[in-house]
Design goal:
single chain; 380 residues; alpha+beta; 2 domains; 3-stranded antiparallel beta sheet; 13 helices; 11 strands; 39% helix; globular
Length: 380
């Protein structure tokens, strides 16, 4: 929060929501921060809220024309507002603007050596919704998740579209716990104009206590899953829309994304593109490869194999090919590969996502240059 409010911009607002079991810590910290007229503070309620309820109150409290949501271990550059303004001045009906992200493991979540990939691209381009829908719902391009950067999470979505989503889809902004990919589902059928900037404007942080910290760690995921379901008041893996889809989010990140797609398609009557099942089964295998240890890998493989065996007569189990890679001795690549600069994660003096962003900002194109190139392109 300190890294955000240090900005001198007066055309933005900050909605800070605490959702802690001990509200006294944040209430004390906010005593001075709340004096900033740009800040709205939503303190903890009498109970810890499910993630979708916490996000819901944040969006309801915001007044801006565009909204971006990040987690408490992330960072977003407030100056992305300049690029957004220039884009809206040169293009009509901008619904969504997203950008590349940096990834940062907080010191408590560095079990293996890692590098930070810094995109060096400078393009700002429009992407057709039809292409995005096909790619996302068919898992056409996938790692452990289908490729889709378009979301309110680390992206800017117009208030016009946000309100339209709410009216069309059940009267809430967020109905599923996988809030980021829920937004992707809704945008890809309800928004019209999508813009993507290759330059990073935010940092996706991962501390041990975050949901990202459970990736590749099934025991920690199981513990966290129990906590989250207790907050929700039910086990959503057993909801009616999951009747013939045995991929509870407890299996891993791939299953969690597939689950929200399942919820969305069943609830609102959408059909996935043909061939998505094979791609999804391949992604399940890739997810197992993210395991933090050989034991964790074996647990993930067993879970996914059981689910795939039960699903559609086991027809897609043959596309599940998990491979374990020992990561503890892996070498960290440093240098340039095509259009990406790789840095050792342990950059001296970098202790937060904001520190990393400012460090990287010295070697990549400035936001002003991207905005200028956009104006020149429009004139040409």
């Amino acid at each position: 929060m300190e890294s955000l409010v240090v900005s001198l911009r007066t055309d933005i607002e900050f909605i800070f929501a605490d959702n802690s079991d001990d509200p006294s810590i944040m209430n004390s910290f906010m005593t001075d921060v709340i004096r900033d007229p740009r800040v709205t503070y939503l303190p903890s309620t009498d109970r810890v809220l499910p993630m979708n309820a916490n996000w819901e109150r944040c969006v309801d409290a915001a007044c801006g024309d565009f909204l971006c949501v990040i987690g408490d271990d992330d960072y977003v550059d407030p100056d992305v507002a300049d690029l957004l303004r220039t884009l809206c001045e040169n293009e009509r009906d901008v619904d969504v603007l997203v950008w590349s992200r940096l990834n940062y493991n907080w010191p408590d979540n560095r079990k293996i050596p890692c590098s930070v990939g810094v995109p060096l691209g400078t393009r700002l381009e429009e992407v057709k919704r039809e292409h995005l829908f096909q790619e996302f719902f068919s898992w056409q391009t996938h790692d452990s998740t289908p490729h889709c950067p378009f979301s309110i999470y680390h992206g800017a979505v117009s208030r016009r579209v946000i309100d339209s989503n709410k009216a069309r889809f059940g009267g809430r902004h967020f109905s599923h716990l996988t809030v980021d990919f829920e937004t992707s589902c809704k945008l890809l059928v309800n928004a019209k104009r999508f813009f993507y900037c290759e330059r990073p404007f935010s940092v996706l942080g991962a501390c041990f206590a975050s949901n990202s910290g459970t990736i590749g760690n099934p025991n920690e995921l199981k513990r966290r899953h129990a906590e989250i379901m207790a907050e929700l008041g039910r086990n959503m893996d057993e909801d009616p829309y999951m009747k013939d889809f045995p991929f509870g989010c407890i299996l891993g990140v791939t299953a969690a994304v597939a689950q929200v797609q399942q919820w969305f398609c069943v609830t609102y009557g959408f059909t996935r593109p043909a061939g998505w099942e094979r791609n999804f089964a391949e992604a399940c295998g890739i997810d197992c490869g993210n395991a933090k240890s050989e034991h964790a890998f074996e647990l993930m493989v067993a879970g996914y194999k059981q689910a795939l065996g039960q699903w559609k007569g086991g027809r897609f189990l043959k596309h599940f090919n998990p491979k374990y890679t020992e990561r503890s001795n892996a070498k960290v690549f440093r240098g340039i590969d095509k259009t990406t600069l790789y840095l050792d994660e342990d950059v001296p003096g970098v202790e937060t996502p904001a520190d990393l962003y400012r460090f990287v900002g010295q070697v990549i194109i400035s936001p002003a240059e991207i905005a200028t190139s956009l104006v020149r392109r429009k004139v040409a």
